[in-house]
Design a protein that fits this description.
Low-confidence stretches: 21-26
Largest sheet: 8 strands, antiparallel, barrel
Number of domains: 1
Structural class: mainly beta
Order of helices and strands: HHEEEEEEEEEE
Shape: elongated
Number of strands: 10
Number of helices: 2
CATH class: Mainly Beta
Radius of gyration: 22 Å
CATH topology: Porin
CATH architecture: Beta Barrel
């Protein structure tokens, strides 16, 4: 073997041994899923050229799926809200949508961790105007900050604040959510 080939072989084997002994190598790739409830506060919503209203806060249900490795995860979240009123008595609205993005969870200490997430979101707003429905479809970005709490070895609760931002909406949509998650990286600390 030539010197370059020998060096490449030695470096490759060294890299494999290092990753086998790292935290990521011990954790592996894990699948998780969860359900949640959210408080949605859109303030002023609507597509300015069609309709713009001051909306009352509403409640939403959501589901979450993801793959996680060493704190990083690819997550997909879907949500849908109850119909709620607005400042215009004849106009009610509901919000539904999805976001797919990259999240990072910090190292767990004392059963707690922090989360940040950046995602591409699609939000649909259904306006019910005197019995007829008008849908505004928007897309944009969402930013999430969260706190996670371990409830058992493979279960956890996350409390998140999400800011959905879109150029199509007259204002951002704010969400405070609580999710119960199953699966993911098992807890390696003290037993419960």
């Amino acid at each position: 073997m030539k010197f370059k080939q020998s060096l490449l072989l030695i470096l490759s084997i060294s890299a494999m041994l290092l990753s086998a002994n790292s935290y990521a190598g011990r954790q592996g790739i894990n699948f998780f899923y969860g359900v949640g409830l959210s408080a949605v506060a859109p303030d002023e919503i609507g597509v300015p050229s069609i309709l713009s209203i001051e909306a009352d806060p509403t409640a939403a249900a959501s589901i979450m799926l993801g793959f996680e490795e060493d704190g990083w995860s690819l997550e997909a979240t879907g949500f849908t809200s109850l119909e709620q009123g607005s400042n215009i008595s004849l106009v009610d609205y509901s919000i539904s949508g999805t976001d797919i993005g990259l999240a990072y969870r910090s190292i767990e200490k004392h059963g707690r961790y922090y989360k940040i997430k950046y995602a591409q979101s699609d939000v649909d707003i259904d306006f019910n105007v005197s019995g007829s429905t008008l849908t505004a479809e928007t897309s944009g970005k969402s930013y999430t900050l969260g706190l996670g709490l371990r409830t058992s070895r493979e279960n956890r609760i996350e409390v998140d604040y999400t800011f959905h931002d879109s150029d199509d909406l007259s204002d951002a949509v704010h969400m405070i959510s609580i999710h119960y998650l199953w699966g993911g990286a098992p807890y390696l600390g003290k037993s419960f």
